[in-house]
Write a structure and sequence with these properties.
mainly alpha; single chain
Length: about 290
């Protein structure tokens, strides 16, 4: 199973190939870089960790862990949602069946994110099968994928693909793909805030814990962008139900990780994103 040192590292544990790596967080003295106008620096940092886009980081950006950039997560998720929506639209224009278009949309999403979330889901599923906390964390760092991890990946892809194929007309699908990308990655921020790192080493520990204001900003921005994405095809009450459903789905792996691991790792955050996305899509199709 993939681990934190594998060629496809999980979210927050290392930077994707082809991008500028971000080292452990340092603690520079307070200054202008702490102010809101450094939004573009935070966005660059978020894009590097959430996508494979070749965004160059500036020296000031590398002085912080990813926790400094959580409020940019909803915006950094947009390229992933756009890529998935574009793949579905092209498949639809080519006359392909909705199921094939949905599978291509999932493929585009995986490619754009470097498969980091799927990697985290597989590692988490394998790790939770361990008997002790130490064994679970050790399994999650193993580079081999086990039965639980393989099944988790198969089920996750199947659920996402099936749900997307049932979203309805093309506009519904486009809005759902954009909203799912935004909402599921927004869910990462509060989990980082509420769950301590499960390890005392590694890039996930170095990423740090986001402060309350940045976490609140991330949630507010994520809810706003999700609502805007769904507004063309959904009523306000439906949007609210979908957002609540996404939050519940994200909380499930977070609570399990708290009980079984004592906190979160980059792998756990990847699992949170995957569960949140599945929850979003299932609630969306259940509330036309």
């Amino acid at each position: 199973m993939p681990d934190e040192s594998s060629s496809q590292p999980p979210l927050l544990d290392a930077a994707p190939a082809g991008t500028s790596p971000v080292g452990p967080a340092t603690k520079p003295s307070p200054g202008p870089h702490d102010r809101p106008w450094n939004w573009f620096g935070e966005l660059r940092l978020a894009v590097v960790f959430l996508t494979i886009l070749p965004v160059g980081l500036r020296p000031l950006d590398t002085q912080y862990g990813v926790s400094h950039a959580v409020r940019a997560f909803p915006v950094a998720a947009l390229p992933i949602g756009i890529a998935a929506a574009l793949a579905f639209v092209l498949a639809d224009l080519a006359g392909l069946a909705p199921l094939l278009g949905a599978l291509l949309a999932v493929t585009a999403s995986v490619i754009m994110s470097g498969g980091l979330h799927e990697d985290g889901l597989a590692d988490t599923a394998d790790g939770l099968g361990g008997r002790t906390r130490e064994q679970r964390l050790a399994i999650m760092r193993d580079s081999r994928i086990g039965t639980y991890g393989a099944l988790a990946l198969i089920l996750a892809v199947a659920l996402r693909t099936s749900a997307i194929s049932y979203t309805g007309v093309t506009l519904d699908t486009i809005c759902a793909l954009l909203g799912a990308a935004i909402a599921s990655r927004t869910a990462i921020a509060p989990v980082m805030r509420l769950l301590p790192p499960a390890r005392n080493d590694g890039q996930s520990h170095a990423a740090g814990i986001p402060d309350r204001s940045r976490t609140a900003d991330a949630v507010a921005i994520g809810i706003l962008l999700t609502a805007l994405a769904l507004a063309p095809v959904s009523e306000p009450l439906t949007i609210l139900v979908v957002i609540v459903g996404t939050a519940i789905a994200a909380a499930i792996p977070a609570l399990i990780a708290r009980a079984r691991l004592g906190g979160q790792t980059g792998d756990v955050l990847g699992a949170v994103q995957q569960c949140a996305e599945i929850g979003f899509l299932l609630v969306f199709i259940a509330n036309p």
